[in-house]
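Lecture notes, unit on protein representations.

Consider one protein chain, 188 amino acids long.
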Amino acid sequence: MAAGTVLDLQGKYAEARKHLQAALGVADEKQKPAAQRSMAVSYFFERNAKGAEDAERPLIEAYLAKKDYQSAADVSNELGRLLLESNDYKGATKYYQMGYDASTKAELKPEDHALWEWRWHNAQARVAARQGKKADAQKHVEAAKATLEKTGTENQKAQAQYWPYLTGYVAFYGGDYAKAITELQDAS
């Protein structure tokens, strides 16, 4: 795993994946998820959305089969981000939706469910912004803000740092570069 990670950071992606594949071959059940996720990120570095999806989809399916909805939601959101940044908006939406749906099945406190709703609106805002749908993006920014206020105090504090990233991201892809700069400068 370490060799694969170092090679990825050096931009030697194909060679990195050989090491990551070898790590998968010897990993126990607790180690496999990290290797699969590293493999997905390696494909992402090349903007290979299909490779990233092929690496993480089996992990998501395994979590869903075990009814580990929290883990399925986490990995689905991660894959959604990778696909979004690879310009695969349809795939990103699919996995963000899958993550949100999995989160609704997880046994969570109400404020933690609200946190997943915040993530869902955050994701939809970013997808809409990337597609040039300014009104939809803004609608989801507003819904994200309202939902964030329903999360617990700890979640509000933890997620507050991501607010300027969201608003800056949406502003940037909406062509409002002055607002994007202001918002992103506030990001910590």
